[in-house]
Design brief:
Two copies of one chain form a homodimer. Chain A is an alpha+beta fold and 311 residues long. In chain A, 31% of the residues lie in helices and 23% in strands. Chain A folds into two domains: 130 residues, 2-Layer Sandwich (60s Ribosomal Protein L30, Chain: A); 171 residues, Alpha-Beta Complex (Phosphoribosyl-aminoimidazole Synthetase, Chain A, domain 2), CATH 3.90.650.10. Chain A is globular, with a radius of gyration of 20 Å.
C-alpha cells in the first residue's frame, strides 16, 4: 500500500530525500523549520458518508497546511500517518492518498513520508513542515493596540455546509457551501503575503473567528473589536441561512474549520491585497473586559457565538 | 490537557519556538531537516495491561527517534498526536506524556508540539525531526560489496519479552527482558557515530535483523551474509529461551521492535566503538540468490526467520 501511495509521485526541489528510507530529508534553507501536527478521526472530524475519500485527504492536509500558513511560512512537506480498519476498501485508502497529494500540491508542496497501520477507527495524522524563507514567524502574541484586524479566505462556509448536512438539505443549489465543509480552502499564499507585509499577529480560523481571534487577544494582552458591518455575507451563505432560518453572521463569527487566516496589521500601514479589514485592536484594560467584542451584538442572547467570551 | 502536557517543560536551544502557537519552529542549522512519522495503536503496537503509560510514551518516541538515528542524524524535536477514548483516565494521558518527554530527553531532544483528540482506540502518532549536522544522510542504498555488517543496540530482547508475556511467564527473573519489550532502547548516539565514521548504509531494526538487513540488501543491490557464530546470546535471552524451550538465536535474527541500528562499513576501515561485526556484504549475483543469508542455517527448517527470504 505504501509503495502504491508514492508510485509515480513527483517531489518538489525542496525534498532532498523522499519516501523510502528511514526518514525523509527536507530543505530548510534559512536554518529553521516550522512544524505542526493534527490528528483527524472518522466520525469526529470527517465522515465517509458525507465526504469522498479524496475530500477527506484534502481536508486533512488543508487543516495542517493552514497552521504553517498561519506562521507566515510556505509549506515544504507533509508527513502522513493513516490508521485503517482491516476491512477498509483499497479504493478508500487510494482516494485519501490522492486527496492528500492534491491538497499538498495546492499548498505548493508534497507528501514526503508516511506510515500505514491497522486500527479500529479510520484515523489520519498529519505533520506539516514549513519554510519561513528568512522571515520572522508571525505569532499570536504580536498584536498591538491600534492594529487593524483583517482576514483572508472563507468564514462561515464550513459551518453553513455542516448545518445543511445535519438538516439533510443536500440539494444541488448548495453545492459550493457543502463542498466548503468537505474541503476547506486555506489561503496559503495569503499567510506568506501577510508576513511579507509585516503582519503583527496571525492565526488560522479552525475553531471560529471569535474564538481564534480570542487566542491572539489573550496571547497579546489586547482586546479585539469586530465591526459586524464589515462582515460581508456571500449570497451562498445568505441562501443557506434563509433555507435554515438562521442568521448567517453567526456562522461567520463562530463557524470553524474554514481555515481562513486572521491577523492584525499596523493601523497606519498597508493591508495586503486579498485581506479584508473587519475591526481594530484596542487596549483591553481600557474599557472592555472581553478578549473579543462584536460591536452591537454582545448581550443579544444569540446562541453559538457567546462561547468566545470564556476564551 | 495540552496545557498540562507542556507546563514546566524545558525546551532545548534548538527549539526556536515551542508549543502554543500554530506551529513550532525548530533549528535546522545545516539547511536540512530529517523527518519521520509512525503511528502506534493500542492492542496492536502496545497494550495498557502489559505496559505502563510511561512505558508506552517512551516506546512511541523511541520507535520514531530510532528512524532519525538510522539516518545518522541527531533528534531535534518530536511532534506528538494522541487520540484517546473519552473514558481514558487523566493519569494515563499524563503518564504517556511523561514517558514521551523522558524518552525525548534520552534522545537529546524534546516534544515541540502536539495534538489531543478523541478516538475509539488509543492511538499515538509521532513525527520525529532530526539534524544531520552537516553530514550526508546514511541511506539504505549505500552498502557495497566487501563491507562489514555491524549492529549497535539490542537484538532479540523485545521478541523474547513478548514471548514471555504471551506465555504468561512474567516472573521477576525476567524483568530486564520484559522491560526491553515494553521500552526499546535505541542506541541514538551510535547512529551519529556511525555517520561520523563514514558508514556506507544504515537502518534500524524494527521488523527483525534479517528483514531490515534485507531492506539494505535490496536497496543496495547486494547480498548480506550473517555469520551466526558472531551473534552473542546474552545470559538474559539464554535464560528466557531455556524457560520457553526455544532457540534464542531465532529471536536475534528475526525479533523486531528493539530498534537496534544495523549498517555496513568499509571492510578496510575502522568500526566505531559500540558496534559489533556480524557478517559481510557480498555480490548478490555472484553466488547467492537471497538478499540475506545466515551461514549454516538456511534450510534448517526453523520457523520464525525464513520470512526474510521474501524480502
Amino acid at each position: 500500500m505504501i509503495a502504491r501511495a508514492v508510485a509515480g509521485r513527483v517531489q518538489p526541489p525542496s525534498t532532498i530525500l523522499g519516501p523510502g528510507d528511514d526518514a525523509a530529508i527536507v530543505a530548510a534553507a534559512d536554518g529553521r523549520i516550522a512544524a505542526s501536527t493534527d490528528m483527524l478521526v472518522h466520525g469526529r472530524h470527517f465522515r465517509l458518508d458525507w465526504s469522498s475519500p479524496v475530500q477527506i485527504g484534502r481536508k486533512a492536509i488543508a487543516q495542517n497546511g493552514a497552521d504553517i500558513a498561519a506562521m507566515g511560512a510556505q509549506c515544504s512537506g507533509f508527513l502522513v500517518s493513516l490508521g485503517c480498519p482491516a476491512d477498509t476498501p483499497v479504493s478508500v485508502i487510494d482516494g485519501i492518498n490522492e486527496g492528500m497529494w492534491l491538497e499538498a500540491a495546492a499548498a505548493g508542496s508534497a507528501v514526503v513520508g508516511g506510515d500505514l497501520v491497522q486500527s479500529s477507527d479510520l484515523v489520519i495524522s498529519i505533520t506539516a513542515l514549513g519554510d519561513l524563507q528568512g522571515r520572522a514567524p508571525v505569532l499570536r502574541s504580536g498584536a498591538r493596540v491600534g492594529d487593524l484586524i483583517a482576514y483572508a479566505g472563507r468564514l462561515g462556509w464550513s459551518a453553513a455546509g455542516l448545518a445543511l448536512l445535519l438538516a439533510g438539505r443536500v440539494r444541488t443549489g448548495h453545492d459550493l457551501v457543502l463542498d466548503a465543509h468537505r474541503v476547506p480552502a486555506p489561503p496559503y499564499r495569503a499567510g506568506v503575503e501577510a508576513a511579507e507585509a509585516g503582519a503583527h499577529s496571525l492565526t488560522d480560523v479552525s475553531d471560529g473567528l471569535c474564538s481564534d481571534l480570542g487566542h491572539i487577544a489573550v496571547a497579546s494582552g489586547v482586546g479585539m473589536v469586530i465591526d459586524p458591518e464589515r462582515l460581508v455575507v456571500p449570497p451562498e451563505l445568505h441562501s443557506a441561512a434563509t433555507e435554515l432560518g438562521v442568521d448567517p453572521v453567526d456562522w461567520i463569527l463562530t463557524g470553524g474549520e474554514d481555515h481562513a487566516l486572521v491577523g492584525t496589521f499596523d493601523g497606519l500601514g498597508t493591508i495586503p491585497q486579498g485581506w479584508t479589514v473587519i475591526g481594530r485592536v484596542e487596549d483591553r484594560d481600557g474599557g472592555q473586559a472581553r478578549p473579543v467584542t462584536v460591536e452591537g451584538r454582545i448581550g443579544s442572547g444569540r446562541t453559538g457565538w457567546t462561547s468566545f467570551e470564556s476564551t
